[in-house]
């Protein structure tokens, strides 16, 4: 008989920025390089996950063993995330998803007009990808890890996200700190999760993104094996 292998649990990770088109040549975006999300994907493979990376536009090589799906906009990332998340054991939303997109992306390049010195753009809200994943039905819902990128009151906003988006673990990074967060090789974060006794936290000091990724995935694994976090 052919050898039987148990299928590996699946991890789905979003990374990088999204690009929201204004017209065929211009977009709204942010400074996410994808480094943190790619470090998580490489680490998930090491931890034994069948790993899919849903990636916004970045200049990084795909880590060995990772299946990579390239997307541009938040709407595309949302579609792929909701297609893949129901089969996953672990979902990590590390992408810096644009909260808004242009209400109407222009079909042709926007022209500069002579009258007036201002141009008004109307933006409309993008769907919240991680909240949609966290709202999946019990049987379909992976363990959901979200990030919180804040520039102040990090723990207050992070614990609010934990509750409001119904996440299992929040990784809060202070993106105003020099040399950490967006684009850098190192990062520091506070981890927040719920226990029957209330919200617990762990302070992960500045370290290479790859080391922080290991800490996050090990922590997520310890919480899925021992959901009370005791
Ligand atoms: O890519 P790097 O240069 O390595 O930088 C890493 C990082 C700073 C981008 C990363 O560590 C990080 O903090 N990512 C989340 C950035 C972010 O958009 O945070 P937020 O606080 O706006 O969003 C909170 C959570 O909701 C995140 O998990 C985000 O992926 C998710 N989200 C947000 C909006 C939206 N429409 N859909 C979402 O799923």
From TrEMBL:
Chain sites annotated for binding CTP: 93-95, 99, 109, 127-130, 147, 161, 165
Co-factor remark: Binds 1 FMN per subunit.
Domain DNA/pantothenate metabolism flavoprotein C-terminal residue range list: 10-221
Reaction catalysis annotation: (R)-4'-phosphopantothenate + L-cysteine + CTP = N-[(R)-4-phosphopantothenoyl]-L-cysteine + CMP + diphosphate + H(+); N-[(R)-4-phosphopantothenoyl]-L-cysteine + H(+) = (R)-4'-phosphopantetheine + CO2
Needed co-factor(s): Mg(2+); FMN
Chain intervals for the UniProt region annotation (Phosphopantothenate--cysteine ligase): 11-230
Listed GO MF terms: phosphopantothenate--cysteine ligase activity; phosphopantothenoylcysteine decarboxylase activity
The keyword Cytoplasm appears for this protein: no
Protein EC: 4.1.1.36, 6.3.2.5
The keyword Lyase belongs to this UniProt entry's keyword annotation: yes
Superkingdom, natural source: Bacteria
Record keywords: Decarboxylase, Flavoprotein, FMN, Ligase, Lyase, Magnesium, Metal-binding, Multifunctional enzyme
Function according to Swiss-Prot or TrEMBL: Catalyzes two steps in the biosynthesis of coenzyme A. In the first step cysteine is conjugated to 4'-phosphopantothenate to form 4-phosphopantothenoylcysteine, in the latter compound is decarboxylated to form 4'-phosphopantotheine. Catalyzes two sequential steps in the biosynthesis of coenzyme A. In the first step cysteine is conjugated to 4'-phosphopantothenate to form 4-phosphopantothenoylcysteine. In the second step the latter compound is decarboxylated to form 4'-phosphopantotheine.
Family (UniProt): In the C-terminal section; belongs to the PPC synthetase family.
Listed name of the protein: Coenzyme A biosynthesis bifunctional protein CoaBC
Origin species: Vreelandella malpeensis
């Amino acid at each position: 008989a052919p050898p039987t292998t148990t299928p590996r649990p699946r991890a789905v990770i979003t990374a990088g920025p999204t690009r929201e088109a204004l017209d065929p040549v211009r977009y709204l975006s942010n400074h996410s390089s994808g480094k943190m999300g790619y470090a998580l994907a490489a680490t998930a493979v090491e931890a034994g996950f069948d790993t899919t990376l849903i990636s916004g536009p970045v200049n990084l090589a795909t880590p060995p063993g990772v299946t990579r799906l390239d997307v541009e906009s938040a709407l595309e990332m949302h579609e792929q995330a909701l297609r893949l998340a129901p089969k996953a054991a672990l979902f990590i939303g590390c992408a810096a998803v644009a909260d808004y997109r242009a209400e109407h992306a222009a079909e042709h390049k926007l022209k500069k007009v002579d009258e007036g010195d201002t141009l008004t753009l109307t933006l409309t809200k993008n769907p919240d990808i991680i909240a949609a994943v966290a709202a999946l039905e019990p049987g379909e819902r992976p363990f959901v890890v979200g990030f919180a990128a804040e520039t102040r009151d990090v723990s207050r906003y992070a614990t609010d996200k934990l509750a409001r988006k119904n996440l299992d673990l929040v990784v809060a990074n202070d993106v105003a700190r020099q040399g950490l967060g967006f684009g850098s090789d190192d990062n520091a974060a506070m981890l927040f999760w719920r226990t029957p006794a209330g919200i617990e936290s762990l302070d992960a000091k500045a370290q290479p993104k790859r080391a922080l990724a290991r800490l996050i995935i090990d922590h997520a694994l310890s919480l899925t094996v021992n959901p009370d976090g005791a």
